[in-house]
């Protein structure tokens, strides 16, 4: 079993576990980021995902990555929310993505040594941690003219790397439930959008994507 641990970024103390999962992260209406989100949604509607993920002309790369990271958090939050009743301490005692990949949680602050925990617990830690990064105005400024921090790209990469693990867990451990709920088209479209985005800007190391490599190749082969 390959143990893949999280990098050292702070996590809020205590876990805010809830069956309804995390609140949606809203981008303020009327803001430039809101306009960017609307642009992203419009280009997604064109059906060409490779084109839809490209940086719009004249836009700031950090802002484009920030808007899309918030959007992916909301998408994954919603997708995982539909299957939480099937992802339990009993059904998923470890956070895995198939038999070869197991994830242990560490945040470098409250949990310095990676801990082995159930998938629902791991995903709760992970999504709470992501939510706290997105809510931090010094990391994800929502006001026009407030600069992004120098470490923004490394924070965004860590967030996306960890969000990928939720997709990987859903595909490997809960795809039968997704099929029963008739959510597979929604999941596949969301994941394809996510993968094309991280590939476009080289945001996740190829080794981290290994648990879903076959699926990634299959999704990509149709658009080459």
Automatic annotation (TrEMBL):
Binding residue positions for Zn(2+)? 87, 92, 169, 174
| One Gene Ontology MF term | kinase activity
The UniProt keywords, alphabetically, are: Kinase, Metal-binding, Transferase, Zinc
**Pfam families named among the record's database cross-references:** Mob1_phocein
Keyword Kinase present in the record's keywords: the answer is: yes
UniProt cross-references to InterPro entries, sorted A to Z: MOB_kinase_act_fam, MOB_kinase_act_sf
The molecule here is called MOB1A kinase
Name its species. Uria aalge
Q: What is the lineage of its organism?
A: Eukaryota, Metazoa, Chordata, Craniata, Vertebrata
